[in-house]
């Protein structure tokens, strides 16, 4: 991959996420169907980075939630040390504590990825503190917020830092999803009342 292969957009110019204005649009390539979903994370959460994966653990979590008596649209887990890797939410200071409950909404998949945009935005509105949205039988979207307005001057540094930060959230989430799948296999509930 070369720099000229990468699509470039100016965020402030994007009025309609489906009719995007590009600063650079490589003619032989096709922009990712995820683009409007990334724009949602950038605009609604001031995210510096958004990662989308088809993690098998994330998919398994959505399948386990689907199997319950009714389709469950929320993954919840508490009393696990790794929860401390997550911030309390957009615009809030500090991270979750060991006893706090991490909540991640689940949206239903669609045949075309860009059609997920409206439900993803609705899930972000309903769960303003979440850093991720699971997509049923598909994967997960994870984002990281801009950490420090002052560092905005050094854009490249912030981009690298936020990419790393979001990557760490993604790794932490994948760890939790795998753990939760194993807990379910052993009959251990995700929520416990240890306090
Ligand atoms: Zn996908």
Explain this structure to me?
- The termini are far apart.
- With 195 residues, the chain is α+β, with helices and mostly antiparallel strands.
- The protein is 32% helix and 18% strand.
- The strands form two sheets. The chain has a five-stranded mixed β-sheet. The protein has a two-stranded antiparallel sheet with strand order 1-2.
- Zinc ion binds next to loops.
- The site of zinc ion (ZN) has 5 residues, from loops.
Helices and strands, in N-to-C order? Answer: EEHEHEEHEEH
Helix content: 25-40%
Q: Give the termini separation.
A: 50 Å
Strand order of the largest sheet: 3-7-6-5-4
Largest sheet: 5 strands, mixed
Class derived from helix and strand content: alpha+beta
Bound molecules: zinc ion
Share of residues in strands:
15-25%
Total helical elements? 4
* pLDDT < 50 stretches: 147-157
Shape verdict: globular
List the keywords:
single chain, 195 residues, alpha+beta, 5-stranded mixed β-sheet, two-stranded antiparallel sheet, 4 helices, globular, binds zinc ion
Q: Mind sketching the topology for me?
A:
Layout: E1 8-9, E2 22-24, H1 35-45, E3 47-53, H2 56-66, E4 74-78, E5 101-107, H3 117-126, E6 132-135, E7 139-145, H4 155-185
Parallel strand pairs: 5-6
Antiparallel strand pairs: 1-2, 3-7, 4-5, 6-7
Bound molecules: zinc ion.
């Amino acid at each position: 991959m070369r720099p000229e292969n990468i699509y470039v957009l100016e965020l402030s110019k994007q009025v309609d996420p489906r009719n995007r204005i590009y600063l650079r649009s490589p003619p032989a390539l096709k922009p990712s169907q995820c683009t409007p979903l990334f724009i949602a994370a950038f605009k609604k959460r001031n995210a510096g980075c958004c990662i989308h994966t088809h993690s098998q653990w994330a998919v398994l979590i959505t399948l386990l939630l689907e199997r319950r008596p009714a389709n469950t649209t929320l993954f919840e887990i508490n009393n696990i040390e790794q929860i401390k890797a997550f911030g309390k939410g957009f615009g809030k200071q500090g991270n979750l504590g060991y006893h706090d409950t991490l909540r991640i909404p689940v949206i239903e998949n669609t045949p075309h990825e860009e059609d997920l945009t409206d439900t993803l935005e609705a899930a972000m509105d309903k769960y303003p503190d979440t850093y991720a949205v699971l997509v049923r039988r598909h994967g997960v979207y994870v984002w990281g917020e801009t950490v420090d307005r002052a560092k905005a001057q050094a854009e490249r540094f912030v981009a690298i830092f936020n990419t790393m930060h979001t990557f760490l959230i993604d790794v932490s989430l994948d760890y939790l999803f795998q753990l939760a799948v194993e807990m379910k296999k052993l009959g251990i509930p995700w929520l416990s009342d240890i306090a």
